[in-house]
Structures are given as structure tokens and as C-alpha cells.
Amino acid sequence: MSEAITLDAKWLLIGKLIKGEDGISSPKDSDHIHRRAEIFALDGSRTISFSTEESTSTIVWLSDSMHWAEVTKDRVSIHSLVKPSEIIHVPIDHQIDSNSQDDPFNREDDHVVTQNDHLISNLENAYDNSLTEFNLYDADLHSNPIKVTTTVLKIPADVHTELVEISPDGKWIAWKWFAYHIKNNNPWISWLQKYFPSIRNAPSIPSTEVWISRIDGSDMKMVGYMAESFQGAPPYSLSWSFDSKRLYFNAGGDTMWTIPAGN
User: For the chain, which terminal residue's Cβ has fewer other Cβ atoms within 10 angstroms, N or C?
Assistant: First the structure.
């Protein structure tokens, strides 16, 4: 099940997978997976139901809070709250092999839509600590055909990535990772550590850190850290303010903390 709320906080979209033709459970169609989506006005005044074109499509709101997009590997279908029956189909122009398993728009929880309606996807690969780099895909949902650009992001060496969040303006990435560092505040020693593994015999400390970078991975800056830490330590969540200037995080309990992002 996927859920999304509009930026104006007036509409809620819920998509779910169910068995049966046209969303109706039936023993004869027990192997048929169908996706259905429902849109609710949060004031209770209206409900819209529709079936998606593919069970694996991604459904996202556009920034105007009046349109939603159903994204598959080959095209985007734009729907309107004003005229739900009128659908605009726009092809996706990208270089991804149609037979490839790497479909950046065919996943539930690894994408974000920015304030200028760019769909940024493939975020889950940031958590694969066996990788040294991964592709970030950016689809401009206002272009026709929809253009997809690919950015190769390098994952810093010797870190265990735990959280990755794209800023609403699509210009920044917030990272939370766990790492070991030499117990020395000299940045020159830390730099040498990356290129001379033998230095790792020096005393080291575990650290949970929050950094930001530009969307292309450049201009890395540390926002904060917690020394003598462990994998899975707080913060447990990480999100951006609407103006992309502050970070919010939860360090346990019911309290939400905020700090300047430093960008």
C-alpha cells in the first residue's frame, strides 16, 4: 500500500494491490494482481476511485495539488481532479534498456517529487553498502516527451548509510550514516586515512553523522554527529523543511528536533 498527501493538505491518495479482476476478489482470479487507487478529500466532501494501468506503477501528486501522475517504465499518465476521466499520456524518453531490471520508476518508497515537479528516483541503492556509487534518476514531469537525466552519486568510503532524504527544492540531499573514525581531530590525519589503510590501526571511534550534499553529491558538509555511537542509533527519522533550509529529526520519544541545514 502507498499513501501520499497533497502539498496543500487537502487530498489523500491511497494505492493498494488486491487480487481479482478489476479489484474484485475472486477465486478464479486468485493469481491476478490488480492495483486500485482512491483519492479522498480530507474534509470528507469527495472520493475518487480508479484502477491503475499497471500493478507496478508509481503514483505521485504534482505540486499544484490538482493533478496526480501514474508513472510506469515507458510513460506517465497525468490525471486531473477537475476532470478525472481525461488522462494525458506522455512518453518517457530515456536510455534505460526496456529489458533491463533497473527500472527506476517501478518502486514504491524510493522516490520524491520536488516543488518543480521533478521525480527523483532510485534512492534505495544508497543503502546498499556494497556499492561505491549508484545512479540517481531525475524525470521532468512537465516535459514532453518526459526527459530523464542520470546522475552518478559516489557513496563515501567506509560508511554505513542509514537515511537519505532529498530536499523539496530538489537541490540537496541529507545523509545519515554510521562510520568509524580515527580518534584524532586533525583533518589531515582523517584525509590520510582514506588513502592509506594501514593508518586504520590507530585508535578509532564509532560515530553517527548527518551530512548534506548537493543533488549531484558534491559540496559535502557535516551538519552534526554523535560520537561513541552504534549502528541504528538516533536520529530515527530525517526530513527537510518546506523551504529546504532546515532538517527535522526524531531522537526518540515524542520530541521532534530541528537544526539549520547549513546550505
Answer: N
What contacts 199, CB < 8 A, 6 or more positions away?
182, 189, 192, 193
pTM: 0.73
d(CA 244, CA 14): 26
Those residues with Cβ within 8 angstroms of residue 91's Cβ, 6 or more apart along the chain or in another chain: 74, 75, 145, 146
Three cell numbers at 130?
556494497
- What is the rounded distance in angstroms from the CA atom of residue 113 to the CA atom of residue 76? 14
CB-based burial of residue 252 (10 Å sphere; 0-12 exposed, 13-18 middle, 19+ buried)? exposed
Give the CA distances from residue 245 to residues 115, 218, 224, 256, in Å, rounded to whole numbers and listed in that order: 14, 17, 15, 16
Q: Which domain holds residue 219?
A: 156-263
Residue where one domain finishes, among candidates 96, 114, 132 = 114
The values of phi and psi at residue 198, to 5°, are -60, -25
Residue 149 placed within a domain: no
How, if at all, do strands 146-154 and 88-93 pair?
Answer: parallel
Report the chain (263 residues): mean pLDDT per 10 consecutive residues: 80 72 45 70 87 68 90 84 85 60 59 88 73 84 87 83 89 88 59 58 73 91 80 82 90 82 86
* Contact of 49 with 37, CB cutoff 8 Å: yes
Where is the domain boundary, 88, 114, 140?
Answer: 114
CA-wise closest residue to 51 among 31, 29, 77, 75:
77
